Amino acid sequence: MKSKLRKPLSVLSALLMIAGLLAAAPITASAATVFKVQSGSEFVSALGSAADGDTIELTRSIVCTVPIRIDKTIIIDHGGNSLAFEAGLTVEGGELKQSDPGLDAINVHLDGSGTAALIVRDGKAEIDNVYAYGTDMCAVYVSNSTVGIYGNITCDCTHAPGGCVGVVAESNSTITIDGYMMLSDDATYIKINNTAKTQAQHETPTNRPEYLTYKDGTSTVWVRCSEHVWGEWEMDAAKHWLECSCGAIRELEDHIPGDWIIDKAATATTAGSKYRECEICGQVTAIETIAAIAPIPAQPDPVDESVQTRRLLLWGGIALGAAVLAAAVIPFAVARKRKKG
Questions:
Q1: Cα 328 to Cα 182: distance, rounded to the nearest angstrom
Q2: Residue numbers of the domain that contains 52
Q3: Which of 81, 103, 179, 313 could form a disulfide with 58 if both were Cys (CB 3.0 to 4.6 A apart)?
Q4: Whole-model pTM?
Q5: In terms of domains, do 203 and 247 share one?
Q6: Residue ranges in the chain whose pLDDT is less than 50
Q7: Which of 191, 206, 224 is the last residue of a domain?
């Protein structure tokens, strides 16, 4: 019986040993290696060993307390955990990608002094939030690169005024910011190719709906509009709408024609015109001609029937009187003539 039990136990031990070795070693699949890390020091070690295109998987949330520089393409698989670069991050000639971006997983901090919390030169980066607290620095510095910030940028210079800048974009750079730009009062909002821009100095119209566009030369910064400012009614022949300077549109609907308005009355010799306009935006929706008014034929003055009646009675009486007189006079005249004869 004992000899029968030993073999299964030894096999189980061997399987456990193999599983342990596999868990500790990098996982290679399709020529890319996955490094599983659970601390800042392990992340630094994995970054040094990783090749271009490898993945670093976070098995727990970690914090890197030393400055980090990335010069190759690295994919971060956070798995619902977070990665904080507490001493700043530089991506130079490489790319930092997220396997599932936009979940507040990768955050960059810098407190003190330096060029920027996040520096990207000749590369690409996907970051969630950036925090910079210091003197004569900026939160994000980008040169000849493409950067996506899925969260917010915070740059606080109130405790150390010295000319802080929220974002600096130089030499053919493109930056997209999906969150808020939260800066202290004395900070410069954006600087593009050495041109400082305030929050209000964006392009009009924007060339990317829902984003405010800041552009100078070959560099562009897009900041998602956090508070829409609606202009006057925009319209075409069929519809009207309100539009923000960022390109966002609301209340897009068909025109509502009002009552007819006569702007030129018709006469006997000339035609007139009338129109209808939308009750909401004032767009003219229809125009029609009013035909000239045909002249009315002249009518005789009305006759007073009572006067006419009196006239008839008068002339009738006269005629009757003349007849009676004739009847009386003629026989008398005839008789007198006979008597003389």
A1: 130
A2: 25-224
A3: 81
A4: 0.65
A5: no
A6: 1-9, 12, 15-16, 18-25, 29
A7: 224
Q: Using alpha carbons, select from 68, 64, 83, 184 the residue that is nearest to residue 120.
A: 68
How distant, in Å, are the alpha carbons of 39, 302, 307, 322, 325 from that of 312? 130, 17, 9, 15, 20
The per-residue pLDDT for range 96-147, each reduced to its tens digit, is: 999 887 778 999 999 877 789 999 999 999 999 999 987 677 899 999 999 9
Please give the DSSP secondary-structure letter assigned to residue 218: T
Query: Based on the domain organization, do 110 and 177 belong to the same domain?
Result: yes
DSSP string for 5-43:
HHHHHHHHHHHHHHHHHHHHSPEEETTEEEEEE-SHHHH
pLDDT at 6: 38
Mark whether 218 and 238 lie in a shared domain: no
- The per-residue pLDDT for 89 is 95
Radius of gyration (C-alpha) of the chain in whole angstroms: 49
pLDDT of residue 287: 93
- CA 181 to chain centroid, in Å, comes to 18
Name beta bridge partners: 92: 121
**Among 176, 194, 224, residue at a domain's last position:** 224
The kind and range of the H/E element at 339 are helix 305-340
Long-range contacts of the stretch 268-272 (C-beta < 8 A, 24+): 268/292, 268/293, 268/294, 268/295
**E strand or H helix that includes residue 312:** helix 305-340
